[in-house]
Design brief:
Elements (H helix, E strand, L loop, with lengths): L5 E6 L2 H10 L2 E4 L3 E6 L7 E2 L7 H21 L1 H27 L2
Helix pairs in contact: 2-3
């Protein structure tokens, strides 16, 4: 299952904010612009690149992605098992590397 979101920018008007509240799950309204993180391009919007974002915008976008990942993992048992196995393997490998560094090997 591949879910693709893109980031769009719009003018921060009352009409656009009201529309986003009703139609977009992930949106961020500021005094100057409205960001919509969506699977389909909203009308009257433009595509936004990460390089154009402020630190607050990037943090908001990061949280959106974490929410999407968490939901995807929660809905897919195989993915959950795979991620847990990956973390267990990583923990084991890190412990082995730590022993090597401490032992001078």
């Amino acid at each position: 299952m591949k879910i693709k979101y893109s980031l769009y920018g719009m003018k921060s008007t009352t009409e656009n904010i009201d529309w986003a509240q009703e139609n977009i799950r992930f949106y961020r309204a500021t005094a100057n612009y409205l960001l919509a993180y969506a699977q389909e391009k909203p009308q009257r919007s433009i595509l936004v690149q990460a390089g154009q974002l402020s630190m607050d915008d990037l943090l908001w976008l990061h949280k959106c992605n974490l929410d999407i990942i968490q939901e995807t993992v929660d809905q897919n048992e195989d993915m959950r098992k795979s991620m847990l196995a990956f973390l267990e393997n990583l923990e084991r490998e890190l412990a082995e590397e730590k022993k090597k560094l401490e032992g001078g090997e």
